[in-house]
């Protein structure tokens, strides 16, 4: 068993004892032991084999015996017994600010409450005030505590994690003891939301790295500091884990800590079948423990007979089988995406003028940029009247003379509830291209909503369907829509599906993008920028495309300008 796994067991015991109302020193002893084990230099299994467990400060006879049992049997009788006495969910209740072990116990015994949801309901119905030592104020405090807990426990949008992650890597790189460094975990896989940031470093002097890391100016709280792993909370509330390994293990550790867990389980199974052992230190021959790979990820995958798998694909969705057969898709590269179709200017609700957008696009090395302001009926977003659209087109044509970057005059045309479009064909025809988008009546039933969108896609001047499910992460559920049917019509009408790259949209997401591709539909990436600053979100759209297994040919943004113009068909 790994140090971390054993530490988890002792943390759990401490929590359970606390609920049981055991003596504080006993509880503290387990927590301290857990912390020691977590930050231990050596493998706890090795320490055990050398008979030196009790040399570790904070580990006495009782705990040493439990470690022995865990290593030998993989289980702990004592923990199993404790668990039978107390429902595990009760531990979660104690995480709520204002609910300690005593209150948790009373809630459980008197009201049978074991989950946060049950507790919320009981507070809302005023069922706590009848208990001794509880009152209306307690109910209000607990409700506020639940709200806070849920907010702080929420996963983070990818841009928040990404920007923090990049900054920390840049900061740590200044340390000369860093030999190699990479982001790992879900952030490296570019998942749509991120639980915590994982960073991996190789170095021969781990303490120097960790000393620097905890001095990072944004660190609010240090959770654990060891020379293998250090965890902190940033001022943004996001947790960051930094791990340091030796250079010969860097590839193996990067593979291990990039995950996903599901991907890694499969990888380990393959290794075992080949008589190999794979872990964060390397790939080893099972019999002789001989090290055969681990310095780079490529070498780790190769050692078990696989082609290199891009991090965005590592979700155990079939990529491992394809890597075995040498048949992985050649997913689109970030630098192959040569422009952005979806930008709002000061003509509607954006903060930058078209000129500023064009200049920025040129700076970013784009070949084209699409100005897609809102249409007339979207009053809250200063949608443009038909008359103004014509003026806007004129401005773009004039600006174009001064810019190399191609400026496409577009619109994000609203789809009305009956499926008709906000602009007449006469206007749509004058533009270079048009998005259609849902911005109202999100709650229609599936049949009506699907027909509404289909009708819009059937208009010959609509080229792209913007944010097809209209979901907002953490804020709005996706609309009820039959995506199979949408994709079918998209293929027939040659309508592109957008991958909206705005971090709280990411719509289509990875799974839907893959589905679209499999049905022969093409996609277009747009940031939905409302300021120059938002234009950097493009990479998150590309990330969704990569996670959806899309190749260059599947994405309009990678095409030559001539081809794009031909497709727009004006
Ligand atoms: P997150 O942080 O929830 O967005 O997702 P991840 O994937 O970053 O998960 P995290 O931070 O808990 O762990 C980082 C990676 O470490 C994870 O993707 C795979 C690896 N890992 C963690 N725990 C285990 C485990 O118990 N078994 C295996 N095979 N891998 C693990
Ligand atoms: Ca993570
Ligand atoms: Ca982590």
What does the model show?
With 570 residues, the chain is of the alpha/beta class. The strands form four sheets. Strands 11-12-13-14-15-16-17 form a seven-stranded parallel β-sheet. A five-stranded mixed β-sheet has the order 2-4-7-6-5, sandwiched between helices. It starts with a helix and ends with a helix. The protein has 24 helices and 17 strands. It folds into four domains: 3-86, DNA polymerase beta, N-terminal domain-like (DNA polymerase, domain 1); 156-245, 2-Layer Sandwich (Beta Polymerase, domain 2), CATH 3.30.460; 262-325, 2-Layer Sandwich (Beta Polymerase, domain 3), CATH 3.30.210.10; 334-568, TIM Barrel, CATH 3.20.20. 2'-deoxyguanosine-5'-triphosphate binds at residues 185-186, 191, 194-196, 198, 256-257, 259-261, 264-265.
CATH homologous superfamily designation of the largest domain: Metal-dependent hydrolases
Which strands sit side by side, in order, in the main sheet? 11-12-13-14-15-16-17
Q: Which regions have little confidence, pLDDT < 50, spanning 5+ residues?
A: none
What structural class do you assign from the helix and strand content?
alpha/beta
Number of domains: 4
CATH topology of the largest domain: TIM Barrel
What value does the average pLDDT take? 94
